[in-house]
Amino acid sequence: MLKITPYLGIFVLIVSIAGLWFPLLGYFLLLVFATLMITSIFRGRWFCGNLCPRGSFNDFWVSKISRSRKIPKSLRSFWVRVPLLALMMVFMGYRLISTQGIINQIGMVFVVMCLMTTTIALIVGISFSPRTWCTFCPMGTMQNIIGGHKYKLHVDDSKCINCNKCEKKCPMQLEVHTSDHKPDCIKCGRCVTACPTKALAFKN
Ligand code: SF4
Ligand code: SF4
Ligand code: SF4
């Protein structure tokens, strides 16, 4: 299984900061959107746990300064997430129309979006847990809706000894072994590696 690397997180800084001077860097986000949309059809939120630059930024960089506390349940609520997704779509749509098709200005719309979301991710990541932003990120919500039922993590109850080691490792703070319904599982595989009895496995 592909493991997320710390180096991907550098792209977040490059686009958010250097993009202010070189707006064309914003188009990198289009590549990210396209990849996550395609992978979500087959593997749900796999992109979040294996390829997302901001996921890497949160895991490897924000984690060094995070207070590592419990993520508030309210942030996972679809009453928060779906309106946020809709708001982001409307806001992006409005800003893109205002550019009147000027290439540099379109790039700047993506750069500003990246900078704004990175700032929020940093604030909530420091205040709670590194992956807090990923519990309500509009792109995560989109993947949850498209493919949340794909490539599920299954628990073999006959092997599980309820040691809870899996939950301690889960960056999304999910109920790893007590529930089979985990559309927000980012398929990072950390729980699978941590399980001493090999009770966890992904299945399509
Ligand atoms: S939830 Fe958003 S920021 Fe987090 S890993 Fe997924 S796409 Fe990236
Ligand atoms: S349940 Fe396991 S694979 Fe899914 S996010 Fe948590 S640690 Fe990663
Ligand atoms: S780590 Fe494995 S054995 Fe322990 S609670 Fe999780 S699934 Fe069960």
How do the strands and helices of this protein lay out in sequence?
Blueprint: H1 9-17, H2 28-43, H3 46-50, H4 53-61, H5 78-98, H6 103-127, H7 138-147, E1 152-155, H8 165-169, H9 190-194, E2 200-203
Antiparallel strand pairs: 1-2
Helix pairs in contact: 1-4, 1-6, 2-7, 5-7
The structure holds iron/sulfur cluster (3 copies).
One iron/sulfur cluster (SF4) binds at residues 49, 153, 169-170, 172, 174, 176, 182, 185-191.
Structural class: mainly alpha
Work out the strand percent. Answer: under 5%
Number of strands: 2
**Unique bound compounds:** iron/sulfur cluster
Shape descriptor reads elongated
Gap between N and C termini: 14 Å
What percent of the residues sit in helical stretches (DSSP H or I)?
A: 40-55%
Q: Strand arrangement, largest sheet? A: 1-2
Work out the helix count.
9
H/E element order:
HHHHHHHEHHE
Largest sheet: 2 strands, antiparallel
Overall radius of gyration: 17 Å
Low-pLDDT segments: none
Average pLDDT taken over every residue: 95
Task: Describe the structure concisely for a colleague.
This protein has nine helices and two strands, in the order H-H-H-H-H-H-H-E-H-H-E.
Would you write up a description of this structure?
This protein is mainly α and 204 residues long. The protein has a domain at 6-146. Helices cover 51% and strands 4% of the residues. The chain is built from nine helices and two strands. The chain has helices at 9-17, 28-43, 46-50, 53-61, 78-98, 103-127, 138-147, 165-169, 190-194; strands spanning 152-155, 200-203. The chain has a two-stranded antiparallel ribbon. It is elongated and about 60 Å long. Bound molecules: iron/sulfur cluster (3 copies). The site of one iron/sulfur cluster has 10 residues, from helix 4 and helix 7.
